[in-house]
């Protein structure tokens, strides 16, 4: 029987992984977009599964080789697609330790250190994000599950007023819950309402003002009409296209007068609370009943990191607590199992703890300020190029530009096609990576800056690459393409 840890050239598989990881994250970065095709990856990875297995080092060597062209360098400084953060050095190292330690962070009894790290980091996060210190919290795998956790607590709370114990009685015993929000709501909140049996048909989309913020009059009227119907309001702290913030200081008191629960989706936007320059966007956000935010976006913690905060710990625990005689409940410490949807779970608190310590308060503020500055620069500089236009002035770190087909007879549909083509061409060129969206009925390129490493040099290189791609594509447009 071969020793599974013997290797290729005597290296431990972890050493191979570590060496590769250091090389992978080193600057300067090579091209951002991966080059492998679907077929390439299927054939590289779809090897025969043997009966006897192979040595561990070979597995890792071959995994690295098979994946290397199928990775987009989304943790690098020139990745501006979707809303994607990088990996701070300490957070990446702590994440690696998390795997090596392999703790089950369900209960204090299994991993005392993991439980206390969450306790400490949870308190730090509340302080930084201007969330009441009495709020309970959960470290979830993403903002989607943070919404699920928070809205499960909301569901418990709003139905308790009707003397319904929803966890015990089930939805069949409950009146339908109504959710009020605007069209700026993120799809993950909608998914959470579906998973919780609230149903997306019970979401009522209210009118917004010209700045995209939910209109207070619309909320007042809707809640008055809802009367005694149990209801939840979902507000946005940073929407995905423009980074729009609802007016919390005006809206939350209205909701409170009508006894509703207010949930804030601040997946990335809540981090603005850490910056003295942007904290004003969150005026009144501390009045909400629950908040959801990601660590794996703007805090630059590796993936599998988000947080739910709930101002009503009893509702939170009622929705999430689980027990069994074999689970050792702690009498003094916080058992994460009582706050999270999962039972067994990765000890994801270590990476957040490390990131917060590495950056400190000022480091987080500076990260926020830098990303916002770069988003503004990229949007205005790309928007000023021939055949481009900026569609917004970023509120925070999210910009939008559009590319214009140079043909004098080009239609809106031609500009849409041209915009899609330019996004694809920029990614193929390799200096940077962007993704598209439909904004006010037209195709646009999103500019989302979340990475701790992005610097002035990156911005210059990216603008120059976009300029070249755009000029080349514009020269090739002979006749507008009508579909
Ligand atoms: C505003 C907003 N809310 C929620 C989410 C969902 O977050 P996650 O992908 O971590 O579940 C995202 C993801 O981009 C987002 O931008």
From TrEMBL:
Which residue stretches, if any, does this entry annotate as coiled coil?
Answer: none
Q: Which domain of life is it from?
A: Bacteria
Cofactor(s) recorded in Swiss-Prot or TrEMBL: pyridoxal 5'-phosphate
The molecular function terms of the Gene Ontology recorded here are:
carboxy-lyase activity; pyridoxal phosphate binding; transaminase activity
Sites of N6-(pyridoxal phosphate)lysine modification:
297
* UniProt similarity note: Belongs to the group II decarboxylase family.
Q: What is this protein called?
A: Aspartate aminotransferase family protein
What organism, scientifically named, is this protein from?
Answer: Alloacidobacterium dinghuense
């Amino acid at each position: 029987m071969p020793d599974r840890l013997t290797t290729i050239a005597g290296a431990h598989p972890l050493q191979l992984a570590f060496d590769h990881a250091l090389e992978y994250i080193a600057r300067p970065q090579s091209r951002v977009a991966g080059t492998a095709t679907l077929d390439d990856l299927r054939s590289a990875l779809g090897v025969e599964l043997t009966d006897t297995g192979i040595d561990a080092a070979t597995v890792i060597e071959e995994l690295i080789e098979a994946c290397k062209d199928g990775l987009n360098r989304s943790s690098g400084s020139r990745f501006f697609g979707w809303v994607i953060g990088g990996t701070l050095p300490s957070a990446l190292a702590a994440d690696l330790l998390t795997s090596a330690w392999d703790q089950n962070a369900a209960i204090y009894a299994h991993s005392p250190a993991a439980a206390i790290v969450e306790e400490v980091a949870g308190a730090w996060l509340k302080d930084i994000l201007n969330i009441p210190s009495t709020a309970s919290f959960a470290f979830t795998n993403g903002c989607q599950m943070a919404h699920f956790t928070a809205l499960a607590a909301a569901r418990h709370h709003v139905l308790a007023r009707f003397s319904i114990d929803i966890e015990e009685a089930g939805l069949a015993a409950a009146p339908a819950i109504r959710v009020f929000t605007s069209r700026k709501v993120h799809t993950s909140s909608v998914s959470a309402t579906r998973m919780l049996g609230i149903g997306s048909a019970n979401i009522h989309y209210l009118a917004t003002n010209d700045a995209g913020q939910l209109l207070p009059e619309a909320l007042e009227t809707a809640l008055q009409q809802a009367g005694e119907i149990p209801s939840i309001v979902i507000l946005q702290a940073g929407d995905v296209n423009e980074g729009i913030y609802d007016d919390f200081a005006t809206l939350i008191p209205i909701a409170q007068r009508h006894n509703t629960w207010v949930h804030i989706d601040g997946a990335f936007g809540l981090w603005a609370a850490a910056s003295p320059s942007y904290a004003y966007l969150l005026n009144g956000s501390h009045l909400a009943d629950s908040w959801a935010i990601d660590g794996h976006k703007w805090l630059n913690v590796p993936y599998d990191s988000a947080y739910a905060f709930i101002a009503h710990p009893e509702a939170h625990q009622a929705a999430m607590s689980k027990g069994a005689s074999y689970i050792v409940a702690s009498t003094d410490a916080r058992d994460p199992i009582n706050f999270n949807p999962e039972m067994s779970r990765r000890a994801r608190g270590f990476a957040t703890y490390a990131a917060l310590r590495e950056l400190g308060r000022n480091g987080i503020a500076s990260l926020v300020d830098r990303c916002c500055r770069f988003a503004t620069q990229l949007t205005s500089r790309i928007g000023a190029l021939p055949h481009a236009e900026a569609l917004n002035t970023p509120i925070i770190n999210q910009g939008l530009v559009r590319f214009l087909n140079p043909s004098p007879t080009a239609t809106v549909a031609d500009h849409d096609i041209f915009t899609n083509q330019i996004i694809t061409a920029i990614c193929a060129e390799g200096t940077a990576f962007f993704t598209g969206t439909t904004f006010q009925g037209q195709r646009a390129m999103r500019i989302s800056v979340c990475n701790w490493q992005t610097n002035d040099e990156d911005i210059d290189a990216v603008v120059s690459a976009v300029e070249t791609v755009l000029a080349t594509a514009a020269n090739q447009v002979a006749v507008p393409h009508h579909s």
